[in-house]
Amino acid sequence: MSNVSFVLFSYNEEKRISFAIRNLIKYGDVFVMDGGSTDKTKEIAENLGAHFFLRPQNNKPQVETQENFDFIKSKIKTDWIYWGYVDNLAPKGLLDKMIELSNQNIYKLVLIPIHTYLWGNTKNFVHEGYSPMLFHKDFVDFKNNQIHGMGKFIGSNDQLLKLPNKKQYALCHFSTYDIHKFVLGHLKYAEEEALGKYKNGQKFSVVRMILAMLRYLW
Q1: Who has greater pLDDT, 55 or 138?
Q2: Dist CA 201 CA 33 (whole Å)
Q3: E runs forming strands in 29-151
């Protein structure tokens, strides 16, 4: 029995939303948290059986805030949340593992391996990493969350599980399927991230800028 609610964040994703919903909906309820799409995202999502909601408005539109988190918790009926995006697809091994973990009482947050591919093709592998995208709703705090952040885990180290970095457990992250959308999105996120850091007292640094450019190019 599934004790996981699958939350997907979207904005004008009519080209990809169906793949993400079909990937998850047999394993639990899917909730689409939308940023105000003007395309057919809502129609497609609801036709596939997902619950569609507009994200609560706040002064940090690119950040997953505590207001967003509280709104989600008011809608779901499960203890566990998969915090995902429409450009990720989960293999069966990972989905089965999520259901298994949602019905145990030892771990409260799970670090999931992510394998990133370009142009929607698994032949174009570029990067691998981890993200805490599966967690118990009472053990994560999104207060003071920053852009690209996944909240703060408020449990203990022995309640955290890191899955093996194997394909059977790894999310497939399909990045950069559209150059125009990628560039606009990158600029939008970069501006929001810079503004957030400035408000937190981090001043401009030429050295950090050069290092960031080198890291991005690499």
Answers
A1: 138
A2: 31
A3: 30-34, 51-54, 80-85, 88-89, 109-118, 125-136, 140-141
Query: CA angle 124-127-197, nearest 5°?
Result: 130
Please state, in angstroms and rounded to a whole number, the distance separating the CA atoms of residues 83 and 62: 15
Task: Please give the radius of gyration of the chain, using alpha carbons only, rounded to the nearest integer.
Answer: 17
Cβ count within 10 A of residue 20: 25
Structure tokens at 73: 């918790």
Quick check: 90 and 23 in contact, CB under 8 A? yes
Greater confidence, 148 or 83?
83
Half-sphere exposure of 176 (CA within 13 A, CB side): 11
The CA distance from 124 to 110, in Å, is 26
Distance CA 79, CA 99 (A): 12
155 pLDDT more than 60: yes
**Which residues, including other chains, have CB under 8 Å from residue 107's CB and lie 6 or more apart?**
101, 159, 160, 161
Sign of the alpha-carbon dihedral angle for 197, 198, 200, 203: positive
Its pTM stands at: 0.81
Tell me what pLDDT residue 18 has.
Answer: 97
| The total number of residues written for the chain in this structure | 218
φ, ψ of residue 62 in degrees (nearest 5)? -100, 5
Rounded distance between C-alpha atoms, residue 99 and residue 37, angstroms: 30
